[in-house]
């Protein structure tokens, strides 16, 4: 409930204060070891100021690289979501499962406009949930130069008539459906020069099935 959100934020006040004072920070890694999000917290809208209302506003004008390991709706992630991060260019996210959580999507929507590199890592546990990653990555990050995806692969898309400066695309275990979608997208990716396929032992008829 709302009281619990405020209590959670107050419990992390020392950590949030340190973060608030580290204006010269250039790289930051946030590891959530509190377990996976519950059904209640998973649906929280962290952009709603009534959720974690006590968290401070921070500015990290020199932060260029951010790594979020298993992000879930927490006060620290909320602070970063609402923060001013004008220099952020590299973002790495490892979700709890193959299902891309709303928290990670919110971070991408909030800070994706100036990103040049996005790495989406795969969680190293079993079982996993086979939901695709978001298809809006190129649209929300119009300056992206390097994109590293994990399985299950999304069907990347762009608005009609829009071209994108993506230069390097790394993908695991490509399948025919993804490659056909990528081929249709190629006219909108004039700068794409490198496509790296990982975790592939052999290809049958040009692709793995």
Order of helices and strands: HHEHEHEHEHEEHE
Largest sheet: 7 strands, parallel
Structural class: alpha/beta
Question: So how many helices?
Answer: 7
Strand order of the largest sheet: 1-2-3-4-5-6-7
Number of β-strand runs: 7
User: Mean pLDDT score, rounded?
Assistant: 78
Shape: elongated
Backbone CA Rg: 18 Å
Measured as a percent range, the helix fraction is 25-40%
Percent of residues in β-strands? 15-25%
Low-confidence stretches: 1-7, 126-131
How far do the termini sit from each other? 46 Å
Architecture overview:
- The chain is of the alpha/beta class and 209 residues long.
- It is built from 7 helices and 7 strands.
- It has helices at 2-11, 13-21, 39-42, 75-82, 102-111, 137-140, 176-185, and strands at residues 27-31, 65-69, 90-94, 117-120, 146-148, 168-172, 194-198.
- It has a 7-stranded parallel sheet with strand order 1-2-3-4-5-6-7, with no helix packed on it.
- α6 links the parallel β4 (117-120) and β5.
- α4 runs parallel beside α5.
- 28% of the residues are buried.
Give a nutshell description of this structure:
With 209 residues, the chain is α/β, with parallel strands linked by helices. Helices cover 26% and strands 15% of the residues. A 7-stranded parallel sheet has the order 1-2-3-4-5-6-7, with no helix packed on it.
Throw out a few tags for this protein.
209 residues, alpha/beta
Write the layout of secondary structure elements.
Elements: H1 2-11, H2 13-21, E1 27-31, H3 39-42, E2 65-69, H4 75-82, E3 90-94, H5 102-111, E4 117-120, H6 137-140, E5 146-148, E6 168-172, H7 176-185, E7 194-198
Parallel strand pairs: 1-2, 2-3, 3-4, 4-5, 5-6, 6-7
């Amino acid at each position: 409930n709302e009281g619990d959100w405020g209590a959670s934020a107050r419990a992390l006040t020392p950590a949030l204060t340190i973060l608030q004072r580290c204006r010269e920070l250039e790289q930051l890694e946030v590891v959530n070891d509190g377990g996976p999000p519950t059904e209640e917290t998973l649906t929280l809208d962290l952009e709603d100021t009534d959720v974690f209302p006590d968290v401070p506003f921070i500015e990290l004008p020199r932060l260029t690289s951010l790594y979020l390991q298993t992000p879930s709706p927490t006060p620290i992630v909320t602070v970063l979501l609402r923060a001013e991060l004008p220099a952020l260019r590299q973002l790495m996210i490892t979700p709890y499962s193959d299902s891309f959580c709303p928290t990670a999507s919110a971070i991408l929507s909030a800070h994706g406009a100036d990103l040049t590199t996005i790495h989406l890592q795969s969680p190293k546990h079993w079982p996993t949930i086979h939901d695709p990653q978001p298809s809006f990555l190129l649209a929300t990050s119009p300056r992206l130069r390097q994109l590293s995806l994990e399985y299950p692969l999304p069907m990347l898309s762009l608005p009609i008539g829009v071209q994108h400066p993506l230069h390097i695309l790394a993908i695991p275990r490509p399948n025919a459906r993804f490659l056909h979608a990528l081929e249709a997208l190629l006219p909108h990716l004039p700068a794409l020069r490198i496509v790296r396929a990982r975790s592939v032992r052999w290809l049958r008829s040009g692709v793995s099935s």
